[in-house]
Amino acid sequence: MTKPRLKIIPLGGLSEIGKNMMAMECENDIIVIDVGLMFPGEEMLGIDLVIPDISYLLERREKIRGIVITHGHEDHIGALPYLLPQLDVPVYSTRLTQGLISVKLKERKALAGAKLKVVPFGGQVTLGRFRVEFFPVCHSIPDAAGLIIHTPVGTIVHSGDFKLDYTPVDGKPTDLSRLAQLGAQGVLLLLSDSTYAELPGYTPSERVVGETLDRVMAEAPGRVIVTTFSSLVSRIQQVIDAAAKHQRRVFIVGRSMTDIVRMTLELGYLKAPDGILARLDELKGMPHNRVVFITTGSQGEPTSALVRIANRDHRQVHILRGDTVVLSATPIPGNEAVINRTVDNLFKQGAQVLYAKVAQVHVHGHGSQEELKLLLNLVKPRFFIPIHGEYRHLSLHAKLAQSVGIPKENIFVLEDGDVFELSPQAGKITGKVSSGNVYVDGLSVGDVGSVVLRNRRMLSRDGIVVVIITVNRQTGKLVGRPDIVSRGFVDTREAKDMIEESRDVVARALDHSGVRPAEWGFINTKVRDVLNRFYYEQTKRRPMILPVMVKV
Amino acid sequence: MTKPRLKIIPLGGLSEIGKNMMAMECENDIIVIDVGLMFPGEEMLGIDLVIPDISYLLERREKIRGIVITHGHEDHIGALPYLLPQLDVPVYSTRLTQGLISVKLKERKALAGAKLKVVPFGGQVTLGRFRVEFFPVCHSIPDAAGLIIHTPVGTIVHSGDFKLDYTPVDGKPTDLSRLAQLGAQGVLLLLSDSTYAELPGYTPSERVVGETLDRVMAEAPGRVIVTTFSSLVSRIQQVIDAAAKHQRRVFIVGRSMTDIVRMTLELGYLKAPDGILARLDELKGMPHNRVVFITTGSQGEPTSALVRIANRDHRQVHILRGDTVVLSATPIPGNEAVINRTVDNLFKQGAQVLYAKVAQVHVHGHGSQEELKLLLNLVKPRFFIPIHGEYRHLSLHAKLAQSVGIPKENIFVLEDGDVFELSPQAGKITGKVSSGNVYVDGLSVGDVGSVVLRNRRMLSRDGIVVVIITVNRQTGKLVGRPDIVSRGFVDTREAKDMIEESRDVVARALDHSGVRPAEWGFINTKVRDVLNRFYYEQTKRRPMILPVMVKV
Asked: Angle at CA A291, nearest 5°, toward A286 and A292?
């Protein structure tokens, strides 16, 4: 008799941060955990979004019993509009997460036909040979869940994104007693969040930010403008609470902030005392020390309210001397430059600006080293796989696990696409499936590949030179001089003589060889060679050279 | 009788970090302080370097008495090869700084004719109505200087880049007693480094890093690879000292590291016990715990030794399991992603990696808030201008100055190009001169302007579509169908049908209007309009559309 074997296949989130997605497979059943997206890196020119490659799942579509979502952040739900229609299975999540998924699907016209199921904390759902239980974890969004997955091979704990906060704003700390209970019963495998495995100590409680906001509202001589992630509902709650305490009214600015405030008020995740929320048309004549704005724009997004305000480009809100701006967020890597520019612009207009480097205005949503160790200690897993992080985060988390006593040979640092097989006694990597980045650019998903990106990269560096070679169809002879047009290469007025000279260079090169349509490949290479050399000598630049033949 | 007036004109370093340069003018004399470069931001596509705009100085060339350089970092000397030949005046600096300037000038073939003068600490040089004295400051390069500038209007103190370190590795702390003495005598104006004005407290002493390196050399089971800035000579000294203590030999890897070690050994800035430095061909057979490498690559530069090692692409050095890699540097903003990738690759090959986030392996070279306050307190200037920083750093530094008692109206936050006039009684901004970024791209300086960059930006996002319209010269009629070639826009095989269809779109549009060479402007616009619309509908992308007319 063969024992059941479990396969764990990370499809995203373990090679780069973001785009979290994982498959678990046991005999004829597959479940999928999270379907996230990633925002493009600097080198992915012109790309709008990056989603996981799910070819492994598409080949086994009939085995998939459902998708389980841990929480409503983009890097856990954002690829659903693109991938759910292809997979067409039920999606299980907590209530707020479901609300956020509906909004996403609706935006992309993918809501029709979607089977979205709400699972309460402590509730269980059976998906083939998997039984999945949701437990509450603290994170920077309400209703975030970790998963307890009962499988024929043993119990698996998946932390989701989590931190420990004994005094969270929404009153739902990570359920440590349930985890301790499981630890006592025996857990086969822990999968745990590595995002902040580099940071020693504990992540401070959200309360610390509450105290700063309280002080700011009390002491600011004028208006207070607070910017944060729209999904960071607990922060919005803290702003409202501090405003209420200091008799300030709250103005919500920006579309996504307005939408999420409305939705979370309706669902009961956000509480606002009567009359505290105000409309912008009530602003006129209000004393400045009675006003708080909550806006989007903490990442320097060019169309966000805060950036428009900083650029004096917002219709309704302008910076006044004496305003205090609070950036209650940390920069997502890659956004530092645009955020710095926004802060500079706010300072230039006379605002006082508080941001993470200079004041305790933000705490992040992931556990630091001591919290990670605590989780390992409570759950006492036999095997451990660090998830959610780049290789260095996973490596450091693996070392933490060793330091609390998990044997080195029971710890596995995986990469996306690895097929990890686990029995109650042992685990090993047994294969590799297609994984990696699928690019969304405009309407199309996946058509932008390495060739298009390589071309964009080349174009971005030194521009393009188009060479038009007109050839007589009958004789194969050149008609007139080659034409040359460039963009992004040189200042076309200043470099006029050089461009003229390069036309002669091409003409001379072709004179020797003669032109025949049949030899186009040869001509093409020759034109590129002589121009590459000529332009590099003249400018030390290497534009893309694109010869085009016109037959007349 | 009119009193002499002093003009201070920052030409770089106050709107963006880097590219430090300032002019001081009194009657018929101008001195220039620092001539730095800046590395291009992400949005400056294809640009190699950025240097200051010196048109103000070129118009007053006969007034310039000399250039004074505070220290040998790129952001203070890097633009000299481009600008010194145009200005052609003597350059004053300390000895090591002069050595580094020679190297830079030689690389760019600008050394011939350069008048480089060494000034010792405590030494003075008279430049027209200015008398300039150099005093030692602690910074992340030896021989860094601050300036005391005696002018007819009063004494000015320029901090250079500085921090306070009472136990510096090279034994030369910032000369506080000279500054206290000046403070007692009366200082008109302090110009002080704002780079780290965001950080509370004190910058730790270099000794902290020495202790970490000592522990690493003692405890590392195998070889140790330390990466740092090649100009951070005190760090190289610390590595050599720690290696010597633990009987390890030191291998220098990478061209720029080798060059600087040779030069600083010769000049006496670096000291190595006999026999400690080894050649790579001596590596074979050495026990791993007797080996230390010092390499370049702390910023993830693609051709640096460390990045080649991380990519298994170095001829002589490969990572072995048990190696410890120390990144003794912090990322310069913008380099985070490539550095992270390098760290990930080192971890993947089994190295233990120590970097600033996880260990005390680096301290930076600029003073934090308490140090800035201490300098203000000692110098007791009547007027204060924060320098070296972006607007938020300057604003925060201005607030620090207020907090130690400098009246708000005596503090001036300037931007590049501001003309600031100062008398013994008052200062004000009286004008603006041309300043900003001059781009170096390949061989040319300044020819890449906003049009070329805008084109590169557009090309980088959605690529280009070239439309070739062949027209009979006599009749003005279209010859054949328009040809269309694209790069970086879509996958040309997958989108073949769409591209074909777009040829018809152009043909139809031109059919209606007829083509006459005289109407090319009109045709050009029309082709771009119809294709823009067509492609956007089909793809939601906006490639650059470049119509080219061929007359036959």
From this structure: 155
